[in-house]
Amino acid sequence: MSVTLEHFLTVSTLLFAIGLFVALSKRNAVAVLMGVELMLNASNLALVAFARLAETSLAITGHVFVVFVITVAAAEVAVALALAVAVYRNRETVDVDKVTSLRA
Amino acid sequence: MIEGAGPVAAFWGLSALTLLAAGGVVVSRNLFHAVLFLIVVFLGIAGFFLLLSADFLAMAQVIIYVGAIAVLILFAIVLTPRASRDNAETRMAPVALVAGVAVAGLLIPAILDAEWRTLSSAPALPVSDLGRELLGVWVLPFQLASVLLTAALVGAVVLVRSPREEREEIDEEERR
Amino acid sequence: MSGAPFLATEHWWDLRDLSNISREILEFLDRVGPDWLAYVVSPLIGFVAAFLLFVLPSQLFVGVYGERRLIGRMQSRLGPNRVGKFGLLQPIADAIKLIQKEAITPRGADKWVMWTAPVVFVAPAVLVWAVIPFGPNMVIADIPVGLVYFLAITALPVLAAFMAGWSGNNKYSLFGAMRVVAMAISYEVALVLGLLGVVLFTSTMSLQAIVEWQREHDIWLVFLQPLAFVIYFISASAELNRTPTDIAEAESEIVAGYLTEYSGMKWGLFYGMDIGYALAAAAFGSTVFLGGWSLFGLEEWVPPWLILVAKTHLFYFVFIWTRGTLPRLRIDQLMALAWKYMLPLAAINLLVVAAERLWWHEAGLGDGIVYLFAAANIALALLLVVGWARVLGYRPERVPTRPRLVKHVGGYVAPGAETGGGR
Questions:
Q1: How many domains does chain A have?
Q2: Cα dihedral angle (C47, C53, C59, C65), rounded to 10 degrees?
Q3: CB of B66 within 8 A of CB of A75?
Q4: Within-domain flag for C407
Q5: Is the complex ipTM more than 0.85?
Q6: Residue C250 belongs to what H/E stretch?
Q7: Minimal CA–CA distance to A52: which of B4, B44, B121?
Q8: For testing contact with chain B, the best of C115, C128, C156, C189 (most B CBs within 10 A)
Q9: For an engineered disulfide with C197, which of C65, C94, C353, C361 has Cβ 3.0 to 4.6 Å away?
């Protein structure tokens, strides 16, 4: 019994699909952000699986890419949550259905 | 491919844990529980990284995702007390479901059909190589990432400053 | 193994190298059982040896009894001395009391999260012991990123504290939880930067290799990087929520902070693992900074694990000492300390250490230069610790040596209170 690259990529795709569903269908803005994080984690998993199991010229590049994805995800979460809190201050809600127009 | 009873059992266990926890994020009716399930997903991904011999990335994943990003999300939930916390779906939920199923349904057969050129022996992926690459070939994106982080930091602080604090700071500047 | 050969032999009864015993057990299991049995049993042996034989007794006696007794003596009072001779049975009395207490779950509290939070708190305190080297062959898991593993584990109790505070359905526990989390993530940044300076010198993140580096160069990292040690000590004591930084469970402020709604053994788990985690941080600090199981050559006669145990307890004694002596800081003072003081110090330390390391390797200087670096770093550390505080505006207080009126020393006297308050 063995675990091949396809196994890892399947898990990554399923996680990505779940993250996509969460990001597109949740009402609370913070929940949307959670979906985005799921998608980013799924792509990190795929990258690391490729770095380890696929025949590439320089395997460590996969890890470098993952470091950058993690960094950018952290920056994005910070700004997104700051936005959510700022919107909450003005509109008293973070419901994405209600925050639909720039006019207050 | 990864062989051996231990790693294979670890893979199936971790996949079950991660996918079930991701399902928990979708299904749970309480936003706080959804965040806890998300943390389990992060830990599951860290476990996958360990399985794939990316030990430094696994630790970095735990430190940054579980230790910082999950905490940020929890803070955002606490700072928005009158928002609805029942993790409900919008009216676009069926469309989103179709989109998710379509993405998975397109990609998984493509993955299973493609002929991947895989290695038979494990490559050496030491952390020192990662460091050398980051500061060697990829030094420009590295510096840009630090600029991005600084911008995010300053931006987040500016965004959450309340108007009263801004007026106080402007008054202080005028006084000086 | 580089360096002088050890006197510890390979016989199973030679206690100086405990891996002899585990090796015999594992070889026996290999012969007798299926392949996977030895693979599964070896971490269990490590767990039993490290955690059950060393940590739990230390936790009970040194942590519960010793700490309270020592703090009592430091504060001019007796510690617990009623139960058993000299109060030595105090931990057992405490355990019995906690077990028979009712573990109340308040109405409206989140039951699942409330029951899971102690589990998430206990797990990291046990997991840290997997990477600490007790001797040249006595590590449960010598992973090449042991240092970062410790940092990852440090991030987890913070989450447990937040879960505990949230699930109580009580605004005071939530306040306590928010304060704890804000403080912990601030000090984590300084902790990571300080330890990064250590990694710059040793070029490795594996704890066993760091101990080997200190043995090879005959110097402890506390002398080579005193600033990193100070940063580690203060940041670790802040992560552990020990006085003077224990606003989390400030016993005189917000009831019990995030632990308000916990009673009985649930609270007992938090309390016990607080001590266990403090011991783990002490063991990690003595491994990285104080030389671990090596003692300038003495480890050939004395069992190395005994040396590590002694250093851990010494480090823990300094934790107890600061707890008994210093008063508690306020939350804003703590955050100012973390962001305005620790972080710039850690950054300057990193710069200086990186410059030294570059100079050392580029100019090809010999290994004796570390002593010069140590002296320079100690001088710089003293200069920075005092000088940066001056820059930030903290002057040392002039304690009056003879009694003076409050207003002469500079204190505040309410108008109308000078006449002595109507006596």
A1: 1
A2: 170
A3: no
A4: no
A5: yes
A6: none
A7: B121
A8: C156
A9: C353
Amino acid C285 reads G
Residue with tokens 């109580």: C168
Per-domain residue ranges of chain B: 1-88, 126-176
pTM assigned to the model = 0.89
Rounded CA-CA distance B146/B135 in Å is 13
- Chain A residue numbers touching B100 (CB-CB < 8 A): 17-18, 20-21, 24
CA distance C236 to C282: 9
| Six-digit token string for A4 | 């091949």
Query: And the tokens for B36?
Result: 């806890």
| pLDDT exceeds 70 at position C400 | no
Quickly list DSSP for C100-150: TS-----TTS-HHHHHHHHHHHHHHHHHGGGS--SSTT--S---TTHHHHH
Strand partners, B89: A26
More confident site: C246 or C86: C86
Residues 136-195 of C with CB under 8 A from B: 143-145, 148-149, 151-152, 154-156, 158-159, 162-163, 166, 174, 178, 181, 185, 188, 192
Mutation target vs B (from A61, A67, A94, A100; most B CBs, 10 A cutoff):
A67
pLDDT, tens only, B10-65: 999 999 999 999 999 999 988 989 999 999 999 999 999 999 989 999 999 999 99
Q: Check if the beta carbon of residue C140 is closer than 8 Å to that of residue C131.
A: yes
Which pLDDT does position C257 carry in this prediction? 67
Residue C181, token pair as written in the block: 């989390």
**Fold adopted by B1-88:** Four Helix Bundle (Hemerythrin (Met), subunit A) (1.20.120)
Nearest Cα residue to C360 out of C175, C254, C217:
C217
Of C93, C94, C73, C90, residue with least CA distance to C81: C90
pLDDT tens, residue by residue, C328-383: 888 888 888 899 999 999 999 999 999 998 888 887 777 778 888 888 889 999 99
Partnered with residue A54 across adjacent β-strands are B118
Instruction: Decide if A98 is inside a domain.
Output: no
Peptide bond into C244 cis (omega under 30): yes
